[in-house]
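can u pls check wat happens w/ adenosine-5'-diphosphate
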Amino acid sequence: MATDKVSTEYGSLVFTDADMQERLPKPVYKELRQTIDDGKPIDLGIANAVAHAMKEWALEHGATHFTHWFQPLTGITSEKHDAFINPKDDGTVLMAFSGKELVQGEPDASSFPSGGLRATFEARGYTVWDPMSPAFIKDEVLCIPTAFISYTGEALDKKTPLLRSEVALEEQAKRMLKLFGKEPRRVVTTCGPEQEYFLIKEEDYEARPDLILTGRTLFGCPPAKGQELEEHYFGAIRPTVNAFMKEVDDELWKLGIPAKTKHNEVAPSQHELAPIFEQGSLAVDDNLLTMEKLKLLATHHGLACLEHEKPFDYVNGSGKHDNWSLSADGENLLEPGANPEDNLQFLVVLACLVAAVDEHADLMRASVASAGNDHRLGANEAPPAIISIFLGDALSPVVDALIKKERAESQSREEIDLGVPAIPNVLRDNTDRNRTSPFAFTGNKFEFRMCGSQQNLSDPNVVLNTAVAEQFDRFVQYVADRSDEDFTKVAVRFVRHTFRDHQRVLFDGNGYSEDWEKEAEKRGLPNLKSTADALPCLVKPENIALFEKYGVLTESESRARYISAAEQYAKLLNIEANTMSYMVRHMYLPALIDYSGDLATAIATKKEIGITGKAEQDLTQQITDGIDKIYETVDLLEKKNAEAQAVEDCGEQDTFYHEEVIPVMDDLRAVVDAMERLCGHDWWPVPSYNRMLFWV
Ligand code: ADP
Ligand code: MG
């Protein structure tokens, strides 16, 4: 897009605040703003007026259909398009869109995962307009961001609990801030998701059933070259990729998505896109749209965009860093600030975060658990599965000093002088360079680095928001219980005690090292290595109670989410196992049989003229042995997978997949990959790692 066009086209496909203001009668606009800003329920009269204006705007921008756009438990987005048309008796057509259609939709909910919340015979589900996330146009369809709930009001999606957790956090943050004499109108979370992805040639993608069916390569011997030369990170962007990135920027900008940074990542053919942060739930919506656009637009350039956490072994996988903070009418609550009062408030927020993450480390871990992410976490390319917090050189001494003062049991005034003003402004310059930490303080925000590239960031943010709300609540209670004491003293004591009690979660060292794993165990930090280990904590009584207390998830919703995630894991592994057998039986075995057959023919032909080819004989033998081994292992995999499928309890099924099926999948891959090294290029049925990762 030409520079002058960027500013005019930015947000042109979004029904923005400016559009609303221009098109809506003043009182209607005012009421709508109250809904958006203060969460006031909307009445049908207002909804009708908004729907009319929205439709007129959409028609002017070429839309013919509308859809409620929502996020079922699969994590991806769903839509069902309805035309605006309303035929009349005289054979003409009216373009209509009512307030009711804007506010509520009723998709047949029976085919979406519900984790057992809803029997198929009562499959009613409703989509409900989220006026906080603006409507937009995509492929001539007016998309209305919505929450998705069951007939009885239970959340069937990712957005509903996120919105509820934002409400809970805002309420508790306001109570906390009131103690500092502040009464902001809004406290919102801010989120900036850095999205990693791979780009390969579309023709290679199409030739790999594993990529098509599972999003990752299930086979492939190591490429001759990996990422060891460290030349790809921030390297010059190839013209095809550059053209793709430009188109992505243009499309995202039209949708009002503030795409900001793009660069090559560590692994060959790996890239990253980071937007400027936005309000939390909006950032999640925009990230989902970004992921959709990345996939779609890649095809315009003969490319395929891989968003899986681990498309290729032997090189880094892809994550999505969740940069998170809190904003009170624009004041960043994780900004250390220049004066002591702000520092104390900052310390309270920081202490609450530390406590939240320590107390709910298991939930944080579970919120990023997926079959894909299991390949990254703890594999020395992403943080380990242990949750810890990095505070860095500027903050850690302050925290240490605060804790030590407590050991001296001094309650005098100087403790404030020691701890609080000691937070220097240098913090802001002291950006974190410790990439091995799962949860790092990066100057004025936290960065949660365990999230998987294809995941919906609602899950981790629901946990963070709720866990922090609980701590703010605890702080307010702590102060109330000591109302006869000086507030500043009480607050400093709260901060000190909180850091002291949760010191075990603070770790500034190398998170990839084995020593840390041992040390973390000594400290009693959970190390939930796989999805099968992590998911069950979603239904631990204390975690169910946390979400219930803050109105984020009812007990049945928590249980449903666990079941849905556990089932998803087993389903994905079943698909991977099936894809492996398919590829082995239909592609690899025939190729190897052909190749060894051709070798055998060559040996026989040579023998006729008195030549014995040692290499040919040796190769034929090795490949024949390989064929036998593959044949045996694929049989075993099918048997194990059938056993896994028969396990009824979803938790036990996940464990069975993790412990019994995955090792056989690994064995099968190892023997096929060994054969790939021996087999002739013309016989091998799929593109190699060399070709996929190093295309030009
Ligand atoms: P890195 O050094 O990790 O690559 P950047 O400094 O470029 O990261 O920022 C990463 C992301 O953090 C960006 O999306 C940015 O907008 C976001 N970010 C910055 N400040 C905040 C904040 N206060 N809250 C949430 N996200 C933020
Ligand atoms: Mg980052």
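Residues 406-419, 422-426 have pLDDT under 50 and may be disordered.
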